[in-house]
Request: fold
Amino acid sequence: MQYCLLKFQFFKKMLTTANNKYPFFDLLEIIPDADISIRSFKPLRPVKAGNIIPDFTLSTEYTRWQHFYNGAPTHGPILLKQLLSRPLVISFYSRHWKQNGLDQLKQLNAAQNEIKANGGNLLIIAAEKGDEQLAKYAWENGVSLNFYYDNHNELAKKFRVYSEEDPTWNRFSGIDENVPLLATYVIDTSKQLVYDHIDRDFLGTFSVQNILSAVYESALILNSRKSA
Reply:
């Protein structure tokens, strides 16, 4: 009888210790957190040749533009009507692409005279305003390019090379900011895309010759319409 009593007291003590170590948990005590939101994921699907960008517009606001001639910043009137009256090569750029972005600028800068000779214009769409790295690079390499500051990535969103639902850092290592893809397009005067290139692999697939061909063909069609 005494043995049974001692055994009962032992198990009672064990149960009490266990209860103190692992207190009773009621599922009803769980309070759902209403602040947690699930963000939708929509992968980037950049526009392609054949698409039309009907709302493609550029602001004439002076602070949106940056001009370089032989590396030096220049100031002058914004001839927007003249810029859009010919096939336009546009290329999205951000300093966060580092050397890859600078290499693309170097290729476009070297091809600028040929682009104009084939009847087109060239404009760089910059994601950041007042980029000191860009100014330094322009001076050291004698860059002669026109830059347009894309406030809040307005144009990048229209071309679907930027999205808050599919940030750039999801796709490329070494990119810590959500910036537009390195993308280059040729858009004719009717706002139709006649050439597209998205630099996804950095393997030198950027073709200046294809850009020149697209510009030349678009300019040829435009001149034939004018003479008709």
Notes: Residues 69 and 144 are 4 Å apart (CA to CA). Residues 2-21 form the longest helix (20 residues).
